[in-house]
Write a structure and sequence with these properties.
Number of helices: 4
Number of domains: 2
Largest sheet: 6 strands, mixed
Shape: elongated
Number of strands: 11
Distance between the termini: 80 Å
Helix content: 25-40%
Length: 178
């Protein structure tokens, strides 16, 4: 009779161990799945862009950061741009800007600070002042006031021909807010 009782106790303990193991494995799987889904949800919520007008500027919030534009993206014609550069292409690099008129340099610098390693004035090609001369082998934005209002890319050069609206158009696209 004691042998039967021992076998019954062992079977009961074995069943309890098996049940406990299944519960632990299930909890581990569910917690891993929950963590993975939570991470995806966090990434998606960080990339959401909200838009509001503060009376002076259109304020867009993306990845927890605010960007200010004097022109709403709904007023933009994205068909006049032809470039593939994105933030990853300039992230933590020196970004050179050839902008003799100073047209909206502050806007570009404000919106890209934190993404690029450094923003520095330069000349595209030959220069008459003492700043670096660059070609399209390094990231450079060449900004010219123009009636054409276009943005195009050649290697690592982005040519922005236009006005403040054209620069905003470029920044909307570069920041992924299009």
């Amino acid at each position: 009779m004691e042998i039967a009782h021992i076998n019954g106790s062992e079977k009961k303990r074995e069943n309890q161990r098996r049940t406990g193991s299944i519960i632990l494995i299930g909890l581990l799987l569910l917690s891993t799945l929950g963590f993975a889904l939570g991470t995806v949800a966090d990434k998606n919520s960080q990339n959401l862009t909200s838009e509001r007008f503060n009376g002076q500027y259109w304020v867009y919030t993306m990845a927890g950061r605010e960007y200010y534009f004097s022109i709403s993206k709904s007023e933009m014609d994205f068909t006049k741009i032809n470039f593939t550069m994105n933030l990853a292409d300039i992230q933590n690099k020196i970004l050179y800007i050839d902008n003799p008129s100073g047209l909206s340099s502050a806007i570009i610098e404000t919106d890209l600070v934190g993404w690029v390693g450094k923003i520095q004035p330069a000349c595209f090609g030959k220069c008459v002042i003492d700043i670096p001369e660059k070609d399209c082998t390094e990231p450079i934005m060449v900004i010219r006031e123009s009636e054409s209002k276009t943005v195009r890319q050649q290697e690592q050069c982005v040519f922005i021909d236009g006005d403040e609206k054209t620069i905003s158009l470029f920044l909307y696209q570069l920041l992924g807010m299009k």
